[in-house]
Amino acid sequence: MSERVLIIYGSRFGHSRDVSTHIAKAIHEAQPALQSTIIDIDDAKGSLNGTGLSRYRAVVIAASVQYGHIDKRVERWVKKNLSYVQQIPSLLVTISLSARKFTDDTPAPEEHTYTSKFLDHTGWHPDRIEIAAGRLEYPRYNFFDKTMIRFIMHISGGVTDRTSTIEYTNWDRLTDVAKDFVQLVENTNSEN
After folding, report:
1. Which ranges in the chain are annotated with CATH 3.40.50.360?
2. Any idea where the Flavodoxin domain is (predicted)?
């Protein structure tokens, strides 16, 4: 019998959805008995509660970081469903352009400013946390976002060319994170 993994994502420009799809594929390749259901946070708010959540044995939450904050819709959902996400194996993946500059000296994911604020606000203690670099897509941004992101990229030494699209995401790293998560799920399920 297959077990189900819930993957919820919050995304403004679609990259968190792409990350979620990649993680779902990597989970299935690592363990075909684990079937992932990917749900946009806007759909999760109404359709997932109590009994709907109980059919899932693990949860992955992928959320974009915008202007210093993890997606507020995701934060509200986690707060509302905290007792559920605390009981099962869980993975939080935040996606941020600032992660493109991370080095070996970068603090642990739970100590990163955006992540620690999110965890403090929600009270959640996920089993695993990953911070992934995002995708820069100037042509896709509206005037405000393009201006703000160009300013942030300018002060952080990044690309400011308004025609640029640059993929910073380390997809191999996300595959490894998904495989590690599968191990966690299998170990947790064998203990129960």
Report:
1. 3-134+171-191
2. 6-162
pTM for the complete prediction? 0.90
At the top level of CATH, the class of 3-134+171-191 is alpha beta
Torsion of CA 37, 83, 91, 169, to 10 degrees: 80
Beta bridge partner(s), residue 135 = 167
Instruction: State the chain's maximal CA–CA distance in angstroms.
Output: 53
Q: Are 145 and 151 in contact (CB under 8 A)?
A: no
- pLDDT per residue over 14-66, tens digit each? 899 999 999 999 999 999 999 999 999 988 876 566 557 888 999 999 999 98
Q: Which amino acid is at 108?
A: A
Measured between alpha carbons, how far is residue 53 from residues 4, 31, 44, 90, 183 in Å? 10, 21, 10, 13, 21
Query: Please, is 109 exposed, middle or buried when counting C-beta atoms within 10 Å of its C-beta (0-12, 13-18, 19+)?
Result: buried
Residue 93 and residue 67: Cα distance in Å, rounded? 17
